[in-house]
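Q: A reviewer asked whether we had any structural model of the full assembly, not just the individual parts. We don't, so I'm hoping you can provide one. Inputs are below.
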Amino acid sequence: GAVVSQHPSWVICKSGTSVKIECRSLDFQATTMFWYRQFPKQSLMLMATSNEGSKATYEQGVEKDKFLINHASLTLSTLTVTSAHPEDSSFYICSASPPGGTDTQYFGPGTRLTVL
Amino acid sequence: KNEVEQSPQNLTAQEGEFITINCSYSVGISALHWLQQHPGGGIVSLFMLSSGKKKHGRLIATINIQEKHSSLHITASHPRDSAVYICAVRPWGGGSQGNLIFGKGTKLSVKP
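A: Here is a predicted structure for the entire assembly that you could use as a starting point for your response.
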């Protein structure tokens, strides 16, 4: 099946620094990628929809200046958490959809961010 | 009340048992996903359904659109099946494909 990778799988950073997380579709072109966040013992929540070559669409309550999304190519989307704070510590997961407008999504393995 | 309810929340089974996890939802949907999340957090897509039944190895997923209900079955369960199983639905007219509504998950532990 299709594979989506994320890098890094985990990261620890100091408060105030920025962290970049990469999401790659390894064997298909993804015109649309999605970024989710999961707090401990809670459900995944959609943060934003990333479209190749255009600005991301953010869900209500998600600060676009804090969570910068860049979808520079059909196989790569990046999420940068700027000026990270301990409350940003979470599990960040991306998914990707192949072209064709279907509901198919392939999920990445996730990135665990811990901000000290 | 959550729009996606899963039952049970926790399930402990002996190796070899047949397992059923249920998902009920209250909105019209275009698709339903079953996901598996391992203790380390990584998520694997198991199935995407819009009708009927799908089978992959020891896993079977069914959906009844009229009753707004889906089940995930695991036959001949094994300790490596231990994980959290998550049901997620894409509501009709829900805009972005990623705008899924997730259940809270069912934590399955299979004992040897």
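A: Points you may want to mention in the reply: The longest strand of chain A covers residues 90-97. The two ends of chain A are 37 Å apart (CA to CA).
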